[in-house]
Amino acid sequence: MPQFQRLQDALEGRRLALHGNTLGIQPEQVLVLETIGSIQNFINAVRRTDGLEWLAEHDIRDIEPEHGFSLEDKPGKSLNGQMFMVMTDQKALSDLRSMFEKWKRDPTKKFSSGLRPFRQVFEYLKKIRPWGVRDRIRETGVVEDWRNRLRDEQEAIPFEVELWHREPGDQRVTAGGRLRFEIGAMGGSVLQQSVIPEIAYHGVLARLPASKIQRIIDRLDADDSLDEYPPDIRLLAADNIMYVRPVGQCAIRIADSEEPAQTVEFATTRVPQGDPVAALLDGMPLTGHQAFTDLAGDPHPEKLDGVESRVIVDDPDGYADTYQAADRSHGTAMASLICHGDLHRPAAPLSTPLYFRPIMKPVKGFDGTVERIPEDVLPVDLIHRAVRRMYEPEGDEPAIAPTVQVINLSIGDPIRPFFREMSAWARLLDWLSWKYQVLFVVSAGNAGQDIELDVPTESLSELRPTEVAREVVSAVTKDTRNRRILSPAETLNGLSIGAAHDDWSGMIPNRRVDPFPSFSDGPNVVSRHGPGYRRALKPEVLVPGGRQTVAHKIPTPSNRALTVRQSRSRPGQAVAAPGRHGLLNEKAYTTGTSNAAALTTRTAVELHEMLNGLRSVTGGPPAEYEAVLIKTLLVHGASWRDIADVYRAVMKGRHGARAAREQVGRCLGYGAVDFERVKSCTEQRVTVLGFGELDDKEAHRFDLPIPPGLSGRAQRRRLTVTLAWLTPIASTRQQYRIARLWFSPKNELAGDRVFFADHNAVRRGTVQHEILEGKKATSFVDGKVVKIAVNCRADAVDLPRSVRYGLAVTLEVSEGVDIPIYQEVRDRLRVPVRPPNR
Asked: Residue 260: what pLDDT?
């Protein structure tokens, strides 16, 4: 048999696959390919190579063309790009590695005719090797975390191990047992183990003596190969380990205020009624604050009647006992925003209570207090238990909050920015979202690092506001790698929310610097950006998250840097806050994507009320479609606005006109949202809702009547169409998303697609949002319609059941134009729907 025959057979049978991440991979079926230079160069070489080009046509077509990695434990040292060659034939894998090693020793060596294509791509590879020690710690932050804990002289150091998910279950038991043995042999202990087969997750929380961690660190520093370890520190070489990570992340620091304490009065006595529609998983709130008790002017919480509380706290783990009143900062702020909105913008409190589950504890240190997920639990397991408790009975206890439609997560993992691979936490949210038909609203995450401007120090003060904005945008987008969304914001079913640079707090104090004085419709400087998995748009929308100010940092000899100023003082959004002297009516100011997510959740509850109102009038839409319709409407009011011109100019100059649109979409998503537009109609604007459920290869067609008043009028008109759904997931497949829904935006009424997100990117997630315009005078006979077909296909595997979706379509002309758009469409619909406000 010719040498490497198994590899040649696998190549001829197309039994090889290139993957961009480890989703669904088994370690014995994969080789790690380290590229020389960027991944994109290697991919291009594969595409140009006859006999291998098919490898680049599927799984790797949506890989982010980004360069390399960096080792946290060796700052400044770069690694090459990384991909994975997967096949079930382990002998063929061995052949590939052996052939590459022989080629490295002698590049002139001849290959058999069937294997010659590999010669052309080997030139772009530095190494072909099995999954090893370096992969288990790559970009997890665990080494840096260990160093910090060693400096703090901790005796025992905790960490999380994510194991390769094995099928069948007995293999998982064996893998867990082997890991427990290895940890025990090193003098450590296993604290918790969690297995969730539906998301291919097998996590272990463990602890090792500091002396053993120090030996591992020393070995990392001394040996760059990282392949073999002595028996007493061989943990990182265990075959069943995929990743080793820090624990207890999602830390939120409690900022200090630079201003005297301020109080706020809640004059309203509107009592929440009914069952909760929204849930908040966060740090423990100050439940006695007047924001939640409605006892205006009375600081005595013992008078609180539980029925009148705006917040229903469910604390089965007893986390509240670990909090002092002064430490209940983040949860209080988020609950305040959900219940009342920005306190500088008077609004009626929500009519339903807010379900609250504490998932963080306060931790005091030399530099203040942080709220964080405890170190003795696995975050994925904690969220799983919390959500399951809401919808499923536990023993004799019924489901605790089965009416919840929207779950708010205004937290993220600061050491896990998203990069190509779905985190277990994001997979969990996607699976729970599909299982319980609930929408997760997740903050994109905040980036607090300095902004390094490419502007001479002496020139900064001479720039106009728009020029300053352009320099800031240029600096922030250059630092994309360090400003990616934080997991679990890559969730596919959930909505990820960025923070728009906007609030109602009035003038900015002179000591603060506003980086965007002329814009309120773009992301503030701490708001992280996308893309998401397989280059889906993330975050989808920007919602006011406060004007984030900066300060001038001591300049370098040539350029100036701006540093982010975090405090509880203006500007920002006014929220309820723990009182400094035990008072229960104080407020503070905050900014960031946490706020934006909370305000989005508040709007979701208002949309629930609107849908209930429609149901009482028309008999629809049915309650089971609420989650997808709320998701649809939360995005429906989004658009790119003035700040998009600044981003376009920067991206065009850096990437060229062709790539600019996709690059801008990564930063702006679908744009800033005007929620008020989706809550009501006008005479010149009508919004129509559609809904349904589809199976694979099915389609539904919706007909929107064209108002006869538009016939023959050269009047600018806009058509906005938004489609949203919840998809089942395949956690062991690269495609991951099972249900792919879409519509074609082509129509004769408004045929021009507004310069907006890339037309491919809008179909990669679970929301497609299109804005189209037209102005040409066209004759429309009465009865003419805009046809919108919603299509469904199965992506990864067969659909387990039909997929529910929501559709929103808005047709409008400029206000004041004498065309009664609303009335003409209403009269021609079979089921008339009256808007809340005319």
From this structure: 63
Whole-prediction pTM value? 0.93
- DSSP state at residue 155: S
pLDDT given at position 66:
44
Query: Which residue's structure tokens are 């005319």?
Result: 838
Does residue 531 have a cis bond before it (omega within 30 degrees)?
yes
Q: What is the pLDDT of residues 256-311, one digit of tens each?
A: 655 666 888 776 566 788 999 999 999 999 999 999 986 444 444 433 344 467 99
Tell whether the torsion through CA atoms of 227, 230, 234 and 238 is positive or negative.
Answer: positive
Give Cα 723 to chain centroid, integer Å. 19
Q: Residue 65 to residues 69, 83, 654, 666, 678: CA-CA distances in angstroms?
A: 13, 12, 15, 14, 37
DSSP string, 728-743: -B-TTSSS-B-EEEE-
- DSSP letter, residue 584: S
Amino acid at 429: L
- Tell me the angle at which helices 643-655 and 657-668 cross, rounded to the nearest 10 degrees: 130
Other C-beta atoms closer than 10 Å to the C-beta of 776 total 13
- pLDDT at residue 341, rounded to an integer: 96
pLDDT digits (tens, 9 = 90+) for 391-406: 999 989 999 999 999 9
- Give the span between the Cα atoms of 454 and 456, in whole angstroms: 7
CB atoms within 10 A of CB 804: 21
Question: 409: helix, coil or strand?
Answer: strand
Rg of the chain over Cα atoms, rounded to whole angstroms, equals 28
Match 């998809």 to its residue by tokens. Answer: 727
Tell me if 136 sits within 8 A of 243, measured CB to CB: yes
Amino acid at the residue 292: F
Can you tell me the distance from the alpha carbon of 726 to that of 119, in angstroms, rounded to the nearest whole number? 44
The candidate with the shortest Cα–Cα distance to 804, out of 445, 493, 464, is 493
Count the Cβ atoms, other than its own, within 10 Å of residue 567. 17
Structure-token pair, residue 28: 């014995």
**CA 177 to CA 394: how far, in whole Å?**
28
156 pairs with which residues across the strands? 209
Three-state DSSP at 756 gives: coil
- φ/ψ of 452, rounded to 5, equals -90, 105
Non-local (6+) Cβ contacts of 122 within 8 A are 100, 103, 104
**Sheet with 541-544, edge to edge strand ranges:** 311-313, 354-358, 278-282, 406-409, 439-443, 495-500, 541-544, 672-673, 638-639
Q: Which helix (H) or strand (E) holds 42?
A: helix 39-48
What would the pLDDT profile of 162-174 be if each residue is shown by its tens digit? 999 988 888 899 9
497: enclosing H helix or E strand: strand 495-500
Alpha helices in 71-193 (DSSP H): 90-105, 117-122, 133-137, 142-151, 169-185
Q: Report the DSSP pairing between strands 156-163 and 241-245.
A: antiparallel
End-to-end CA distance of the chain: 81
Joined together, the tokens standing for residue 826 give 């209403």
Q: Output the CA torsion sign for 546, 552, 554, 556.
A: positive
What is the percent of the chain where pLDDT is above 90? 58
Q: Are 447 and 483 in contact (CB under 8 A)?
A: yes
Task: Map residue 536 onto helix, strand or coil.
Answer: coil
Give residue 271's pLDDT: 78
Alpha carbon distance 515, 493 (integer Å): 33
Could you give the count of Cα atoms lying within 13 Å of 588 in the half-sphere of its Cβ? 24
Rounded distance, CA 294 to CA 278, Å?
A: 19
Residue 224 is which amino acid?
D
